[in-house]
Amino acid sequence: MKKEVFRQQTGFTLIELMVVVFIIAILAAIAIPSYRQYVVRNSEHQAQARLQQLEIELNRWRATALTYKGFQPRKTASDGTVSNGYDDAPTNQTIYVPAGSNNGNYSYRISLVDASTNGTLAPATTGFSTAGNSWRMLAEPSPSLTSFDAHLFMLSSKGLRCQSKDRTVQITSTDCGAGKESW
Fold first, then answer.
1. For residue 111, what is the domain's CATH number?
2. Which single residue of 34, 93, 96, 111 could bond 171 by disulfide (Cβ 3.0 to 4.6 Å)?
3. 5 found inside a domain
4. What is the pLDDT of residues 43-64, one digit of tens each?
């Protein structure tokens, strides 16, 4: 009588490894686009919240100064300190989102201008002329979000509140262009 000796399997077969790799690939194909959509949606909500916060600050400013002229938004530095001013000192028109970000790491860039002159509302060192009767804001996504079809947002003191994926819209535009939606 012959004894059969069974060897115990000590590894995985090629088929088993291929099945695991296939399952991981399917999960990654579903998870990565969902995560990207989440990041874009989150950045859009941050931009909308900041636009609304700036609108409140502008209305408070006008209630005390009777004009929008000289407005300085509240800003938070990366270390948490709060001050008043714009994120770009030379032009006094730009606010970056999220708070504490700068030209190199922002998700949205908000431009705030006087609606009649398209100039700054804040006092500049030279050439400061603005009506101060109305304002317009445009929030544009960073290039990294633009590639994922993020919206741009426009808000004005005259009641305009729209969003669009039209990249031809500028701060001088009067609406959100083609494909505009309300938000």
1. 3.30.700
2. 111
3. no
4. 999 999 999 999 999 999 999 9
